[in-house]
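Hello again, I could really use a second opinion on something today. I've been staring at a protein lately and its backbone has me curious. Can you walk me through what the tokens say about the fold? Take your time with it, there's no hurry, and the full record follows here:
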Amino acid sequence: MFMEVLTIGDQARRDLIDQKSGEAATVTGIDSDKGEEPQQSYSSFDAIFDLTADEKPDYIPKYLPNEGQPVFLGAVKQQLASLLSEHMGHIHCQVAGVNALPTFLERDRLELSIFDNNSRQNINNTLQTLQWDVEEVADRVGMVSPRIVFMIINEACFTLQEGTAGIDDINTAMKRGTNYPQGPFEWADATGIAHVYETLASVYHDTHDERYKVCPLLKTKYLRKEAFMR
């Protein structure tokens, strides 16, 4: 089965979906930052990926009425249930949340949460057609992988702030100790400081777990729009 897919979001993440889909789909992309609209109707697509829905939810009402359409929403900074709460009673598409953050979207397995158990089969069939592997997780702010990685980045920021070790030493120690491909500061830069900060802030607001309380150094980098490695 050949699919027509609509992607909504920034150019970099739209391009990733295009690359991951390969020959299984024709991908049409629109830029959420520019408020673009597709030339054809939303209902004409076999699937929709709204990759920045947890940052810019303005598009959500435009495809929710589409009966049975598989829709994948970026749902890391907001819980999927929160994104859809004001639309209850008007959801006719089949919705899943995905981890669409940079560096995570590139992974072989797509982290995914299901909104309605009745849609699970159709959601999985769609992803199988696109030849993607998935890892289903609970619908929670931060999902699973971002919580773990960003908590490590946050702890590294505290270590740096206290003067215990420098950036290069911390990066090297993490790569050697965990076999991660990048150190925490390299990973923060690659993902984007804003994504790290905003996700941690959302998780802390949701859980009040001190492990996710944003380090002042990380907050300063976010506010100053500075990277760690350059």
Notes: The longest helix spans residues 145-161. The chain has a mean pLDDT of 94.
